[in-house]
Design a protein that fits this description.
Keywords: Membrane, Transmembrane, Transmembrane helix. InterPro entries: FA_desaturase_dom, Fatty_acid_desaturase. GO terms for molecular function: oxidoreductase activity. The chain is of the alpha+beta class. It is built from 17 helices and 10 strands. It has 2 domains: 1-81, no CATH class; 113-409, no CATH class. It has helices at 68-73, 88-98, 113-117, 129-152, 158-180, 188-199, 206-218, 234-237, 241-251, 259-266, 278-331, 346-352, 361-366, 374-378, 387-398, 409-418, 440-448; strands at residues 2-4, 10-16, 19-25, 53-59, 61-62, 65-66, 355-358, 403-406, 421-423, 427-429. It has a 4-stranded antiparallel beta sheet, with no helix packed on it. Helix 4 runs antiparallel to helix 5, helix 5 runs antiparallel to helix 6 (188-199) and helix 5 crosses helix 11. The protein is globular, with a radius of gyration of 24 Å.
Length: 453
Amino acid sequence: MASTLCGGMTVSLLPAHGSLGFQLKATSKQAAAVRWSALDRSGFLSGAQLSGFICSQGAATQHGRPHKRTLNTVVAALRLAPPPLHDMEERKRISEEYGFTQIGEPVPDDLTLKKVMDTLPQEVFKIDDIKAWKSVAVSVSAYSLGLYLIAKAPWYLLPLAWAWTGTAVAGFFVIGHDCAHKSFSKNKLVEDIAGTLAFLPLIYPYEPWRFKHERHHSKTNMLGKDTAWHPVRREEYETSKALGAALTLGYGPMRPWMSIVHWLGWHFDLRKFRPSERNRVKISLACVYASMVIGWPLIIFKTVITGWIKFWLMPWLGYHFWMSTSTMIHHTAPHIPFRASSEWNAAQAQLGGTVHCDYPRWVEFLCHDLNVHIPHHISQKIPSYNLRLAHDSLRKNWGKYLNEAKWNWRLMKTIMTKCHIYDKERNYVAFDDGAPKESKVIGFLRRVMPNLS
């Protein structure tokens, strides 16, 4: 296997009688990176900085990875050049490696978001009250059925009932999401009321979320500005061992539920909102607190604390699984960059930096096509029930630029074990990249998560 490194350096990894032989050539003292294999600790080795020409043959291995002595003598601070996405064969290779079905070509610098939007048929922007309230009926019916299943299911079938009910609750989020983007109803008061009510089963304050979410769309994948998922800054990670450990857990095994931290940290602090926003924020917070003060005691009174866990907490955790998973897949992959505001390009971020991911059809039905995400980033005025039509149009006109996947374990594993710390040249590096030894937490994920696509 051969790779081209930053600064013109090259590397080949050659199998030799059960060991690996390294052949490295550097044209400068610049640091570079060497790939060990697609299944290793993040794809990269660490060791002493390259200078001039280094060649080491027959390096010892242990459990399929370099022996510690190899790490200390071969390479350090090694950095691969960003994948050449202009090359079709390379895009196919990394599509398979990352768990994608297609990785798009780079979006040209001169392509504008307006030009993309102008190719969409006007019917995708049409608000249809019947379709909107049909989605409400679907979510209410599915949620009611879920609560019935929880009440009647024997203990060994409860996980299935929770999975259904949590997914149905995610449908309420999508309804509120449409309301926040003013794509649910032509009556804005109706939208605000419907959005607030849809968010109540989630204990989510509607207006605070709306204000923060608008910034996600205006600054998608903008470094330090996007309010959704973003890479960890190295200086943040190294602030303290406790914070580093918390971030490792949060961006590793707990990532499918990290939206809980986002929910708690972003939406309940009035100081995080502009003075002009605070009155509406207070109304939303009052609704949420009233729902908790009235609803939770009633559930506990009728079913005791175990009933609160069965009927509310477990479905709520199921909702956050879909919330976290969808959010991280929509904009997170090793080849999708975060850029500083001075380098940011709207079309590149929204068209080329957003991912379409197919889920099982029952999930897409209950979540009102939340997964059809690229057209939503082209225009937030597209109602959820028109997203598929809009995506078909994007495929027809801009298909070569689209990033698409079908949900699979390899995709999840790539994000949870590789996409951690921001790196300008590689976009992301793993928490233990360049560390003397592998992270126990991330290493555990690498070993136990399936690599199935």
